[in-house]
Design brief:
479 residues, alpha/beta, Rossmann fold, UDP-N-acetylmuramoyl-L-alanine:D-glutamate ligase, 2 domains, 11-stranded mixed beta sheet, 7-stranded parallel beta sheet, 16% strand, binds ligand NPW, binds adenosine-5'-diphosphate, binds potassium ion, EC 4.2.1.136, NAD, NADP
Length: 479
């Protein structure tokens, strides 16, 4: 499991580590690792031009000490100070002693700061780290824009990205690589921040972060492998779980087919379909058990997936919500489901909105959800007292409390009509196989993302291709 920690936890761990170790040890370790990453990116350090953008805090201190190390190895290092009278004194002295040059970044008269950035092969963003508030200030944004061809390395996190949430209010640094210290910060794993961070390298600087204090977690292969429902010798189709699918309508039979396609690959032993697209489902999947009547008359299931392409069929939704088994609600089902009705359920409920649906449920606009995904998913989970999977560029899964899960496997190829229907079936199937709502949602998102990568392999995919590649994703994880 990969964990990310909020700023308050990192600060507390920093204080504890500082009390244990010698003065300045943490910054020395951070700067050494930063310099090593810069050297790796440069290839040849001697003679290369490196420019440091240096703010008023310790983030700038890291950049200055790393710059001193590179200068000692023969790089031409220039520090551009964005707060000249507040730059880290020790770091500044170290850089000067190593032969580095220092330029006033606030002085706009001679263009020296712009030239230093434009002429660099590597630009180090030490403007702000976890102490930053809001987007880049005007002068910093202007200088960052001057780095057109350089490789950009962010210190701890890209300046302008909110460390706790991944929100970007205004301008932010777009890094090729981020060297982060002690722990991942949520803002490095959640969009939009994640997209600004580039490749993230975590450096151990000796912070002790208790796992139970994590704000965010991402499943890795081994975690998913442990959660996958694999049949044992004594299994039969009923013991493996039966998933019921309530999706599609006369107008949207395809949603039913895609949802069943996902459900057939999620580990349940059988898939029941109940609704008006029964003919379309059986024509494509003879293994599905279909009926055209109400869900409650379709036979026993261990979990329901309801909503894709459902239209306005509120009766079928209510029928499913009455069942005392886990229920996944997606798409049209989300629009029709009453908040109090969901809160009153005793069995687990998993809601799977995309940003537009989440925005409608919260009564805000879509851009707001996309810019503050963590806040949105947490708020929905609390309001509905349910597990919520928020789809999109970084899919998040939240319970009413506890750390939020972020899916690491997503790919933009998934942005294709109907792929969400496949995800619903897949997650419903995992629910029926006995996974907790949080695990079912996050394992489904993980497999779905991997499946899309298999299916796409550099070319556009259709939702059906994603469903067909789910077995390859299972094999990846289990292998
Ligand atoms: N934690 C650890 O274990 C370790 C931490 N380490 C490092 O320390 C970093 C944290 O350092 P920090 O606390 O000094 O804060 P930091 O991010 O440098 O800047 C704060 C200053 O910036 C300013 N400012 C605010 N917003 C701004 C904006 N938008 N644009 C411009 N300026 C803005 C604000 O001053 P203001 O101008 O508002 O008065 C404030 O004083 C951390 O990220 C890591 O790199 C490592 O050395 C090793 C171990
Ligand atoms: N930019 C993106 N990056 C990664 N995954 C994405 C992106 N855009 C959409 N997705 C994924 O694609 C799927 C789309 O689902 P949804 O929006 O419900 O579409 P539909 O209703 O057409 O099936 C979700 O799993 C979502 O997480
Ligand atoms: K930074």
């Amino acid at each position: 499991m990969r964990s990310a920690f909020g700023v308050a936890e990192v600060r507390a761990a920093e204080r504890a580590a500082m009390a244990r170790g010698p003065e300045g040890a943490l910054m020395r370790r951070a700067a050494a690792a930063l310099a090593a990453e810069c050297a790796r990116l440069l290839g040849r350090v001697y003679g290369s031009r490196v420019t440091l953008l240096v703010g008023s805090g310790d983030n700038g201190g890291d950049a200055l000490y790393a710059g001193a190390r590179l200068a000692r190895r023969g790089a031409g290092v220039t520090a551009v100070l964005l707060a000249p009278d507040r730059a880290h004194p020790g770091g500044l002295a170290a850089l000067r002693a190593a032969g580095g040059r220092v330029v006033d970044g606030v002085d706009e008269r001679d263009g020296r700061a712009e030239d230093a950035v434009a002429g660099a092969r590597l630009v180090v963003d030490g403007i702000v780290g976890i102490g930053g508030r809001g987007g880049l200030r005007e002068r910093a944004a202007h200088l960052v824009a001057a780095a057109r061809t350089a490789t950009v390395v962010a210190v701890d996190l890209p300046s302008g990205v909110d460390a706790d949430t991944g929100e970007v209010r205004g301008e932010a640094v777009r890094a090729d690589v981020t060297v982060t210290f002690g722990a991942y910060k949520p803002g490095l794993l959640v969009d939009p921040g994640r997209a600004y961070a580039g490749a993230v390298r975590l450096v151990d600087i000796g912070l002790d972060l208790p796992p139970e204090r994590r704000a965010l977690e991402a499943l890795q292969y081994a975690d998913v492998a442990r959660l996958l429902p694999v049949p044992a010798g004594e299994s039969d189709k009923y013991r493996r779980g039966v998933v019921g699918v309530v999706a599609g309508s006369a107008r949207y039979p395809g949603a039913a087919v895609l949802c069943v396609a996902g459900a057939l690959h999620g580990g349940a032993g059988a898939v029941r379909y109940a609704g008006p697209a029964a003919d379309a489902v059986i024509a494509r999947f003879p293994e599905a058990l279909v009926s055209a009547g109400p869900p409650s008359k379709a036979g026993r299931v261990q979990a329901w997936a309801v909503g894709p392409g459902l239209g306005d069929d509120e009766d079928r939704l209510l029928d499913v919500l009455d069942a005392d088994v886990p229920v996944l609600i997606d798409a049209d089902g989300l629009r029709l489901a009453d908040e109090r009705r969901v809160r009153a359920r005793r069995a687990p409920t998993l809601l799977t909105p995309h940003a537009g649906e989440a925005a409608a449920l919260l009564g805000v606009d879509r851009a707001r959800v996309e810019s503050a995904r963590l806040a949105a998913v947490r708020e929905l989970a609390a309001r509905y007292d349910a597990t919520v999977l928020l789809k999109g560029s970084t899919t998040l899964v939240a319970d009413a409390e506890g750390p939020v899960r972020v899916n690491p496997t997503g790919t933009a190829w998934l942005a294709t009509a109907g792929s969400g229907d496949v995800l619903s079936g897949l997650a419903g199937s995992l629910l029926a196989a006995g996974l907790a709502a949080r695990d079912a949602g996050s394992v489904a998102a993980y497999l779905h993302g991997l499946a899309a990568r298999h299916a796409a392999d550099g070319a556009p995919v259709a939702a059906q291709d994603v469903a067909e590649a789910v077995p390859a994703a299972w094999r990846d994880v289990r292998g």
